[in-house]
Amino acid sequence: MNKAIFWDFDGTLVHSQHLWSNAIYETLLHYIPDTPVTFEEIRALTFDLYPWDTPDEDFTQITGSRWWKHMEGRFSEKYVKAGVPLDAAQQASTHIREKILQKEKYHLYEDTLSVLCACRMLGYHNYILSNNYPELPEMAEALGLTSFFDEIIVSGLVGYDKPRREIFQIALETADFPEVCYMVGDNPVADIQGARQMKIPGILVHRGEHPDADHCLDTLTQLLSIPGFR
């Protein structure tokens, strides 16, 4: 029997604590050390910054290397809105990428590897299904995750963001339409509602209770105790 688990990345397998907002702010401080702009002001401006904030849009024309060029423009717009001079905003925006791609910014949950290994031993094929930048496969390799996964499906490479049906359809096709599958993630909308529309059971982790999830878990390890999971 073909069995698959689609795993979200950040917030599910790893945690990074306000990675993007911190990177945007730290980069600004590097170029304008005495900036009056606060971290809270930067964070408030990022609520609609990323492609996954507006998943109804079609981003298929800005995948791969074009993804970051698009994001640099968005970063610059937000800096200017916060009062940063245009020249400084444009310069700083080109250096956010390097901070986001620093391996040390990401921390595996303590049970990530053991649970991925256990799922493999139970006959499941693992797939990362993430709203993220196009270099996510390289980051997964740097973190020692690649050997646990059959494929990595990431919005920055396919141009659609969860909860859109298209990215879930790509995941199902990649997994050869498994008879049994689950979506494991920390976002009630992108992961759980997105999976539900495709009739994929959704498992919410690290976020407490939510009515849309089939199961809500405090840890990844609890996945192995779900009735019928094995």
Characterization of this structure:
The chain contains ten helices and eight strands. It is α/β, with parallel strands linked by helices. It has a six-stranded parallel sheet, sandwiched between helices. It has a two-stranded antiparallel ribbon with strand order 2-3. The longest helix is centred in the first third of the chain and has 17 residues, at 65-81. The chain is elongated. The model has no long low-confidence stretch (mean pLDDT 96).
Instruction: Write down how many β-strands occur, each being a DSSP E stretch of 2 or more residues.
Output: 8
Q: Would you tell me the overall average pLDDT?
A: 96
Order of helices and strands: EEHHHHHEHEHEHHEHEE
How much is the radius of gyration in Å?
Answer: 18 Å
Biggest sheet: strands side by side, in what order? 5-4-1-6-7-8
Distance between the termini: 12 Å
Structural class: alpha/beta
Report the β-strand fraction as a percent range: 5-15%
The global form is: elongated
Distinct helical segment count? 10
Main sheet: strands, sense, barrel: 6 strands, parallel
Low-confidence stretches: none
Percent range for helical residues?
A: 25-40%
Structural features:
single chain; 230 residues; alpha/beta; elongated
Summarize the entry for a quick read.
The chain is of the alpha/beta class and 230 residues long. The chain is 39% helix and 14% strand. It has a 6-stranded parallel beta sheet, sandwiched between helices. It has a two-stranded antiparallel sheet with strand order 2-3.
